[in-house]
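Quick one: structure for this chain?
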Amino acid sequence: MVKYHPDTRFLTDYAAGSLPESQALCVAAHLHYCSGCRAKIRELTQLGAEFFLTQEPEAVSDDSFDRLWQNLQKQETSAARQTHPQQESATTPDTTKATKTTTNSPKSAQELPQAIEKLTRGNINSLKWRNIGKSFRFSNIPLGEQSRETTLFHIKAGGNVPKHHHGGDEITVVLKGSFSDQEDHYHVGDYIVRTSGESHTPVASQDEDCLCLASLDAPIVMNNWFYRVLAPFFNRPTAW
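Got it. Here's what it folds into:
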């Protein structure tokens, strides 16, 4: 049962198409699991359409749609190349074959929200993962945003993310499994917002790995000096 949801501002901006890409991806992931918020989005979309019909038309240039379409195509091509550079000249792998999974790695992306499956081409295990300790790893998702980081976090069953505090706002959506911290226990679909200055140590449940999607607008800072020393050796240290 989903317990934590985006507030009205997030849902309204999502329905209006005005959220930054990384935040919109988090809302879309939450909607995959939450029928209540999907109903709210439908209501907001309908309300927006009715409001739009009451407005005076405004002239736009003839090439507006063409320019928008070109920008979308460029973003999709760039994301695909960064996510799977080794597959640019190869044929698409057959993902319909059964694969063996273990409790120490995320399961097939077929159970994930459609937006995540599309960005990862149906195989999150093919992403470039970076390990921090024995039980936590992360992989950045390239969306082309300069001011935000979009990341997948994977915590092994019973493992934890080293204690850290937030330098800015972070949205986390649980995609698989569950985790807890000093405030609560979070399950699949939960949409959790952390603000600057908050500190916690997420711990995955003992019986299942935990996979989360996160959008950050500032780096998180590890409390342990050892992890802070290692940060410069990672290509994209802003995720932690």
